[in-house]
Design goal:
Helix content of chain A: 40-55%
Order of helices and strands of chain A: HHHHHHHHHHHHHHHHHHHHHH
Largest sheet of chain A: none
Distance between the termini of chain A: 105 Å
Low-confidence stretches of chain A: 1-23, 408-412
Mean pLDDT of chain A: 87
Low-confidence stretches of chain B: none
Largest interface: A-B, 48 and 50 residues
Oligomer: heterodimer
Mean pLDDT of chain B: 92
Number of strands of chain B: 3
Distance between the termini of chain B: 69 Å
Shape of chain B: globular
Number of helices of chain B: 13
Radius of gyration of chain A: 35 Å
Structural class of chain A: mainly alpha
Order of helices and strands of chain B: HEHHHHHHHHEHHHEH
Structural class of chain B: mainly alpha
Shape of chain A: elongated
Strand content of chain A: under 5%
Number of strands of chain A: 0
Strand order of the largest sheet of chain B: 2-1-3
Largest sheet of chain B: 3 strands, antiparallel
Strand content of chain B: under 5%
Number of helices of chain A: 22
Amino acid sequence: MRMRFGGVLAALLLTVAPLRAANASAPKPPANDDCLTCHEDPSAKRANGSSVFVDRKVFGDSIHGTAGAACVDCHVDLAKTTDFPHPDTLAKPDCSSCHAQEVADYGKSVHAASRAKSPTGKAAWCVDCHGAHDIKPSTDPASRTNHFNLPATCMRCHGDPKIFPRASGTGGSEPVSFRDSIHGKALEKSGLKIAPNCATCHGTHEIRSPKSDPLSTVARARVPATCGSCHSKILDEYATSIHGEQLAKGNPKVPVCSDCHTAHAIASASDARRLAILEQCGGCHERQLKTYRDTYHGQVSAMGFSRVATCADCHTAHAIHPAGDPRSSVAAANRVATCQKCHPGVGASFAKYDPHADTRDRGRNSLLWATSLFMKILLVGVFGFFGIHTVLWFPRSVKARRDAGVKKNGGA
Amino acid sequence: MVEELLVAAPPPPEPRWVRRFDTYDRSLHILLMVSFLGLAFTGLPLLFSERAWAARLSRAVGGFQVAGFLHRAFAVCMLLTFGLHLARLLKRIFGDREYGILWGPKSMVPRLEDLKQLIGHVKWFVGNGPRPDFDRFTYWEKFDYWAVFWGMGIIGGSGLILWFPKFWARFLPGDLFNVALLVHGEEALLATVFIFTVHFFNGHLRPEKFPMDTVIFTGVLPLEEVRHERPAEYARLVEEGGLERIAAPAPDPEILWRGRIVGTTAVLLGLLLVTLTLYALLT
């Protein structure tokens, strides 16, 4: 990080030094028209054949063009050049001379880190997202960084399987899953300006890696706050829930928003999600999932039908508290109301049904435990007895049939 | 020459047939079969809900709600069958004063004799004694019969509790539903596996009967079979002069074939279910 700053600083000194205003004796820098004399020709090429064409209108319509910026404001190394045509390779424009804060933020990003690690790599820098001569302000509907256009801009790299191999699949692929998510549809289909785009969660210039950088807006511990910046009521519920409290205490095992809702394929609570939640919760709450599977709720949902209670139907999705907590939806005082959500009109006795009954837990329900033991003995007894009975009978029955056959044939 | 021989030979003995089950009992057995298989097919998927076949079976009948509806419909059919049987028992006892069905050789009520025959039968299995002189109802047939009563009480009772939880919750504590669900499933497992293995073997699949005993469908069996397999009943019939009373014509071939098709279908369906069940239990 420090080394990279040194590099940026050095580049800054080299390029800022020959500012035209600072040196009156320097040759007059070329005006935009001077540059366009050559660069307006669509057939103008470098030695390697790549085009150096600049469209006068495109630049004129860009934010820099309308602000009256000169070519040499960005291509500073040409300000003092007198020998034209100038060399093919110029210094990369340094946006920080005007946009210091943005470049400083970018310096902390995963993009800058990747770029520093591999200078020949393709990690994004300013022009990859903003464009070059055609830069428009993000308020402009045609801007690459406009709220509605940003996903397509990010996906130029993040949707390219050559750069990100997992982008090719449909499952874990960010571009595909975001576009199909409730966020993506709200943004791209419904055109909601309040719908989030990539930057809403990941940030703009200071995009940090959620895996390695705890300061990332989508680092595990910070996910609830990030989602909560829009879903503030949900954050209130989550933050005071057992999961939120544990997260605040630094427990890394508790679920955050993305564990249940996923990061990019975020869907509203569909039927498929209501079933998938069972495995999510059951990943930690193994015994509860197991005992749930012994009930009608659990049996029906295991067959892929979702019109029965799954975890969140009783425990709520976000305001989850231990059953002993009076705020809990499954606290003794709230249980009848919770059952009534699906079973209207039922009373206190109905709500005494144990949706997580455990036949092996004698303390929890001794009658159930005793019944289960009796049933086991009965099954083993009946099948044990008749199993032996049948096994012994079979060979004798074979013999009896053979004897009868012999007798029949002999008598005929 | 050949003709002479044919004329000289005595005519083959005409096989004599006797009636064992009347139309009422055979009809009830059909109703019981249909409702039992229906209940098994719509209920067992729940018990093995985490198996792929369970979900497929449930979807095949139209989803868990349709399966639930059919399960209750078959349950009503089975309860009706049971009720018809009880009604007939009451008529035979109080109307016809047939007290013989309450006790004795013609009764389903277990006697000490049954225990002796069980021991004798096992001795015969291992080649250590003669085959017991079975009467009209053997001990394994009595077990099957009373198992239905037990199952009707336990599975039927718990099923009715689970069917109307709101009603029962007015009188019963809610944790009894946990017990009801447990016994309903475990008893169902006991009943289905028992019928699809032990009953099928004893009644139909054992080598002496294989592929099936058609008496439950035709109602009649050769007298020779009674004499051989139920010597006590045969002797009693000879002694009482009841043979003429139960003499019957040979079964109508069409009814025989229909019985074979229905019986074989039921056996195959049952074996399919018990295979899936045992596979799920053992893996």
